[in-house]
Amino acid sequence: MVIDSLKSWEAVDEYFSMYGHCDVDYVNEGTSEKIIRLLVDKWGQLNELSVLVKRKATIEGYVLGHVNSTLDIDDLEKLRDYSVSGCHIDNENLCEKLHLSAISALKKLHSFYSK
């Protein structure tokens, strides 16, 4: 399974189970990009992630760890906004954590660019 196959939360779960231990450097950045694409472009499928997190709690930290300052500011801002105004899942705690991760990444980016 390669990074390009990360087109669903189920695929992310499989990838995490098989390769999560070697998710470093450029691989990490590629995985982050695929995860933000799922979060931003397929926000309506967030409940699939929520169900997965209930079944396997470790995937939550993996996903949240990929919401980071390597990502595009516009995508992070969309995630920040969606997680506040568009959280239509039972697990509001997940939305709150996504929101906080997006804010943290944005702060790092803004601090980097303001130097």
Automatic annotation (TrEMBL):
Superkingdom, taxonomy of origin: Bacteria
Name assigned to this protein: Uncharacterized protein
Species per Swiss-Prot/TrEMBL record: Salmonella enterica (Salmonella choleraesuis)
